[in-house]
Predict the 3D structure of the following.
Amino acid sequence: MADKDHLIIGKKAFQSRLILGTGKYQNFKAMVKCLDNSETEIVTVSIRRLNLLDISKNEDLIRTINWQKFWLLPNTAGAKTTEEAIRLAFLGQELAKRIGQEENNFVKLEVISDPKYLFPDPIGTLKAAEFLVKKGFIVLPYTNTDPILAKHLEDVGCATVMPLGSPIGSGQGIQNITNIQIIIENSNIPVIIDAGIGAPSEAALAMELGADAVLINTAIAQANNSLIMSKAMNAAVYAGRQAYLAGQIVPNKFAQSSSPLEGSGFLK
């Protein structure tokens, strides 16, 4: 990544703009290798998967990851109501402290009451976000591609907005480009594309549109070779970001010669 081109969430700076999930891998060893290979710095973990009463029972997930290297992003996946999401957020905060990240108040907020398409609940998400922000959390809410909701989430103090590219785990890529462009244009906080990215080209596209980061899980974990895919996604995010910073040419209806004839002596 270019010098000083950091992803800023809350007051914390990250060099990598690729965030990885920890679910759906064949085993925990493969997961850890992919985390290392991807050069990610932020790792999201579903709090519902863990036994917080006895952290030793989470040895394969929690103790295998080097939390001095990675920043934990607890997520409230599985929460169907505002109240459930808030409870999981506080449990995630406790987990961060147990692994030595005392100042970590991050939470990836998910409130999903729809069991079929797994679309986020906009009203429940906004209510939970407003409450958690007031309690000092750095809230990263998972949302639909609704520009108005994105502004409401920013207005209540969320650190980012995380619109879906397409339904979770679908691999359909970025389906609503127009709305995502509007969210990016109107946001004064980082926009992270979360869910639906299936290929490195789609991750690059998200970054070319001006997204600040992408969160990827299934596309890496379920790839035929997860290790190679984790590297490919890292390269794609980097390339897409550099393309955005470079400033892409404006498409033209007609062909434009790349070797102008003016001054060549051929034109009379």
Residues 7-246 form a domain with the TIM Barrel fold (CATH 3.20.20.70). The chain is about 35% helix and 15% strand. Residues 166 and 196 are 4 Å apart (CA to CA).
